[in-house]
Design goal:
Blueprint: E1 4-11, H1 19-30, E2 33-40, H2 48-59, E3 65-68, E4 82-83, H3 85-90, E5 95-99, E6 102-106, H4 109-121, E7 131-135, H5 139-150, E8 154-159, H6 162-174, H7 179-184, H8 194-197, H9 199-203, E9 208-213, H10 216-219, E10 227-230, E11 256-259, H11 268-275, E12 279-282, H12 284-299, H13 305-320
Parallel strand pairs: 1-2, 1-3, 4-6, 7-8, 7-10, 8-9, 10-11, 11-12
Antiparallel strand pairs: 3-5, 5-6
The chain binds NADP nicotinamide-adenine-dinucleotide phosphate (NAP).
Residues 70, 109, 136-141, 159-161, 164, 214, 231-234, 236, 244, 260-262, 283, 286-287, 290 line the site of NADP nicotinamide-adenine-dinucleotide phosphate.
Length: 323
């Protein structure tokens, strides 16, 4: 590792991102001299030149690692030399490393989500039948859906545009025969807790995934998932009063609600679920886990998760006070 390193995030917009807070805290905590910057790269075609320029800097060792966020998780793919099988399967990269002059794309959202879910609810994997409902069918839903299917869950994907959920469910089903290869040859999969890494293979289940329209949740009383994951931006600051589930939704007994939104920490969804006695998990844990794995891929040093968590907690509390 060089004596001073420069890491960064590309996306648009990026001014609100907590990644600089998390990674600068991590660099300080492990004593690496370096900085992490947020680089604004506009959507293509406008941002094309900036995107190529910044990837060239990484290739020429002027930068030492990059995160990628919306809208570039897919647009960077053709510019990379290699993709981990996991990021290729998901069709999205959120971390880029340079190894021997080559740019390699990874996806740490999948292991980040699973690791955090395991930390909070490892008992789920004692259950023979695990059923989850995922709200939304965008990039984050894709990572969450893959993560759950790969560890033996049955899932329903609910989106406001039914075709989006249907397409995602078809894509996921098409990955079934390659799952073993995808997981075995993806470096980022190695960070997933060993206890659940093989759960799909052990369960010898077929990938069971179905698509449903989001508004069907208002009518149907048949849903009794163990886990509900919000993978829509509903409830995220500044639209804090919104929730992906209808006002009169009845949370099944024993359901855990996992909200990927972490700003604010207590979303309307989490508040409502708690009021009805459901257990809740905020997206902050996944945020830290995916960041920690990116940090480890770049530096080969164990990520100081406690320092990373403390830094983001302070930042979010500051935001909540309007700071
Ligand atoms: P995305 O690719 O834009 O997908 C968003 C999904 O939500 C789409 O299916 C979208 O449907 C749906 N949606 C948006 N507005 C909606 C509305 N008003 N009603 C119903 N559905 C709506 O975004 P993403 O990357 O998946 O991110 C989703 C959320 O997860 C964001 O809040 C992001 O911050 C969070 N996230 C958190 C973490 C973490 O580490 N905790 C990691 C990744 C993402 P349409 O296409 O029809 O709009």
């Amino acid at each position: 590792m060089e004596s001073t390193i420069t890491l960064g995030l590309i996306g648009y917009p990026v001014h609100h991102s907590l990644s600089p807070v998390i990674h600068n805290a991590a660099l300080r905590a492990v004593g690496i001299q370096g900085t992490y910057h947020a680089f604004e790269v506009k959507p293509l075609p406008e941002g094309q030149e900036d995107l190529i320029d910044i990837l060239e800097k990484l290739r020429n060792a002027k930068l030492h690692g990059l995160n990628v966020t919306i809208p570039h998780k897919q647009t960077v793919l053709p510019h990379l030399d290699t993709l981990s099988p996991l990021s290729r399967a998901i069709g999205a990269v959120n971390t880029i490393c340079r190894r021997e002059g080559q740019l390699i794309g990874y996806n740490t959202d999948v292991p980040g989500f699973l690791t955090d879910l395991w930390i909070h609810h490892s008992e789920f994997w004692d259950r023979k039948r695990r059923y989850a409902l995922i709200l939304g069918a965008g990039g984050a839903a894709r990572a969450v859906a893959f993560a759950l299917l790969a560890t033996g869950w049955h899932i329903s994907i609910a989106s406001r545009r039914y075709t989006q959920a249907k397409e995602l469910s078809n894509t996921l089903k098409s990955l079934q025969s390659d799952l073993f290869q995808i997981l075995s040859f993806s470096e980022e999969w190695e960070s997933v807790p060993g206890e659940i890494q093989t759960s799909f293979l052990l369960s010898s289940n077929k990938m069971r995934v179905q698509a449903i329209p989001l508004d069907a949740l208002t009518r149907s009383k048949q849903f009794s998932p163990l886990l509900i994951v919000n993978a829509t931006p509903l409830g995220m600051s500044p639209n804090v009063s919104l929730s992906p589930l209808p006002e009169d939704f009845i949370y099944p007994k024993g359901t855990v609600v996992y909200d990927l939104v972490y700003s604010p920490l207590i979303t309307t969804l989490i508040k409502k679920a708690k009021e009805q006695g459901a257990a809740v998990v905020s997206g902050i844990g996944m945020l830290i886990e995916q960041a920690a794995l990116s940090f480890e891929l770049w530096t080969r040093i164990r990520a100081p998760k406690v320092s990373m968590y403390q830094a983001v907690d302070v930042a979010l509390r500051g935001k909540a006070k309007g700071g």
